[in-house]
């Protein structure tokens, strides 16, 4: 006869299951995002983190089962996560293939930026999950779960920091791809061009007036000598 699950283990399983759900969603999302990524540094890190994410899911699943969680529930979560992420990825790809993708803001650069933003949001959620699990496990004396959560959290934090550094790079790529050069930097080029034009016009106007090429002081000295 199976032992009845304690309140402690039930609470740990609850939070571990939430983390497992996020891992499975991210796993499928990352697979889709890798296929939409052309920037080598980002693609390489996504592939590395996909391997980490799969390992995280296995470790969490193993811990859930050891604490009395149901394997059938985990299978349902994995199936639903795959369907959901695949649907979102399909919509993103369809938008990118549309004839007006640049006008609608779904060019290749922007898709990569939005995927990175989504991944960063997922990392923040996962960091929160594992911070909760680590704290809870320590509070109830489950060192094994606490150690696992701490190890995974640190890897999620490293990925989050990488994505934070990528966001500005990817944003600048969107600017280059979708904003005309003359409209960048707040229109500074246009303002500078107008200023140079006004300066040239003023110089030509001054030179064309009688005595316009001589300074006021020079004209006064000439007038004094003629007296």
Q: What is the string of SSEs from the N terminus onward?
A: HHHHHHH
Task: Tell me, briefly, the overall form.
Answer: elongated
Assigned CATH superfamily = Ferritin, core subunit, four-helix bundle
Q: What integer is the average pLDDT? A: 82
Question: Which range does the strand content fall in?
Answer: under 5%
N- and C-termini, Cα separation: 127 Å
Describe this structure in words.
The protein is an all-alpha fold and 227 residues long. It has a single domain (7-178), classed as Ferritin, CATH 1.20.1260. Helices cover 80% and strands 0% of the residues. The chain contains seven helices and no strands. The chain has helices at residues 7-35, 40-66, 71-96, 108-139, 143-178, 188-208, 216-225. α1 (7-35) runs parallel beside α3, α1 runs antiparallel to α4 (108-139) and α2 runs antiparallel to α5. The protein is elongated, with a radius of gyration of 31 Å. It starts with 6 loop residues before the first helix and ends with a helix. Mean pLDDT is 82; it is low at 94-104.
């Amino acid at each position: 006869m199976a032992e009845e699950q304690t309140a402690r283990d039930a609470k740990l399983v609850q939070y571990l299951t939430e983390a497992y759900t996020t891992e499975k969603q991210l796993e499928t999302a990352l697979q889709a995002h890798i296929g939409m990524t052309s920037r080598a540094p980002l693609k390489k890190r996504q592939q590395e983190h996909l391997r980490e994410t799969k390992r995280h899911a296995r470790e969490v699943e193993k811990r859930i089962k050891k604490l009395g969680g149901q394997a059938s529930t985990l299978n349902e979560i994995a199936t639903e996560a795959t369907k959901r992420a695949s649907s979102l990825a399909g919509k993103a790809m369809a938008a990118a293939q549309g004839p007006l993708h640049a006008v609608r803001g779904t060019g290749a650069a922007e898709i990569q930026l939005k995927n990175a933003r989504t991944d960063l949001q997922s990392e923040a959620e996962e960091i929160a999950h594992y911070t909760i699990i680590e704290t809870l496990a320590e509070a109830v004396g489950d060192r094994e779960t606490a150690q696992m959560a701490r190890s995974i959290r640190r890897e999620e934090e490293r990925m989050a920091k990488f994505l934070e550094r990528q966001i500005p790079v990817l944003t600048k790529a969107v600017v280059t791809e979708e904003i005309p050069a003359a409209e960048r930097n707040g229109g500074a080029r246009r303002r500078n061009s107008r200023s140079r034009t006004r300066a040239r016009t003023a110089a030509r106007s001054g030179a064309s007036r009688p005595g316009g090429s001589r300074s006021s002081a020079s004209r006064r000295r000439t007038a004094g000598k003629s007296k």
